Amino acid sequence: MKIGELSRRTGVSVRSLRYYEQKHMLASERTAGGHREYPEAAVDRVVLIQHLLAAGLCGDKIASLLPCMRDHDGGPAEMATPWLVEQLKAERHRIDCSIQDLYYTREVLDEVIATAAG
Amino acid sequence: MKIGELSRRTGVSVRSLRYYEQKHMLASERTAGGHREYPEAAVDRVVLIQHLLAAGLCGDKIASLLPCMRDHDGGPAEMATPWLVEQLKAERHRIDCSIQDLYYTREVLDEVIATAAG
DNA sequence: GTAGGATCTGACACCGATGTCAGATTCAAC
DNA sequence: GTTGAATCTGACATCGGTGTCAGATCCTAC
């Protein structure tokens, strides 16, 4: 499919899709004229990228992580290097901290909301 | 205390403390010569601000939220306006979504880490 | 009084994801 | 063929929190 359709189907702007490609998170074939052509699987891929970005992973990490994931075909295309595994463990720890922080902040918000209501 | 000590005790840079003040998240008295002077309670306040910032609330929201919180003295200094309550509920929802996203992403990371280890 | 460390203000830079605009080119439908 | 919509590239802007630098001023210990 073309980039416009991918944008429509994922809710991600055309601009962002091009950015993902620039950062090597998303690949595309090219038409004779230079237009991007995506396979069906690109939809899931883009959704996944959005999740990872929302979780605070930067583009570079995502780019190196993606080939190490199991995809629909089964095994991963690449094995994570020890260096990458360390990075991912650090990210995992950061995420744990974020989760704790979010729970705490949600309680703070709840208290203020409750106080205003009561 | 002076800004340097507050920085040391909270681990927040002097630059950031001044920024918090500029955004009305943090108040200070001034010496005759213009130097900032903080009460003891500023330490907790700064820690709280860090939590809220880490949770993705922007400075303006935090500034309007803080006076509506219960402090050590008991009741809040101000009541949250209906508008603010709506904002906070929206933030709460955003936080819920973030938590879900983080759990999902953590699973993804775990899977890659496990695959690399196994 | 004086020296040196701390603080002041104001300005500019940075990051990363995204928006937006301009001008050129391609694609699809008639 | 032609035309209008879609896409291309490249550049610049934005946001918020923070880093950093310069030059001036203050505070404290001697």
TrEMBL record, chains A, B:
Q: Which region is the signal sequence?
A: none
Instruction: Locate the transmembrane regions by residue number.
Output: none
What sequence ranges are listed for the domain HTH merR-type? Answer: 1-68
The family database entries (SUPFAM superfamilies) matched by this protein are listed as: Putative DNA-binding domain
Q: Which key words tag this protein in UniProt?
A: DNA-binding
Q: Recorded GO terms, molecular function?
A: DNA binding; DNA-binding transcription factor activity
UniProt xrefs under CDD domains:
HTH_MerR-like_sg3
Q: PROSITE patterns from the xrefs? A: HTH_MERR_1, HTH_MERR_2
Per its UniProt record, what PANTHER family does this chain match? MERR FAMILY REGULATORY PROTEIN, REDOX-CYCLING DRUG-SENSING TRANSCRIPTIONAL ACTIVATOR SOXR
Q: What is this protein called?
A: MerR family transcriptional regulator
Report the source organism.
Answer: Streptomyces natalensis ATCC 27448
